[in-house]
Amino acid sequence: MTYSNYRKVFKQLKAKPIKLxxxxxxNVPKKRSCGFNLNRCTRCGRVRGGISxxxxxxxxxxxxxxxxxxxxxxxx
Length: 76
Prior knowledge:
Layout: H1 10-13, H2 17-27, E1 50-51, E2 58-59, H3 60-70
Antiparallel strand pairs: 1-2
């Protein structure tokens, strides 16, 4: 199960609180204190190609889509 979709099961387990508690115990991703998986893109959740300058915390693909909106200009 990937990091982004472990919450989708909550709809089925809301009626069963004991099973929901057990599910969360075994399936929630653990909190990271170091490593490349700590710096995820805030927009899409990608791990690789991150830009953390200026506090952006975005991947390079999302940065290209939103750069003009953020106020960056492309110089040739």
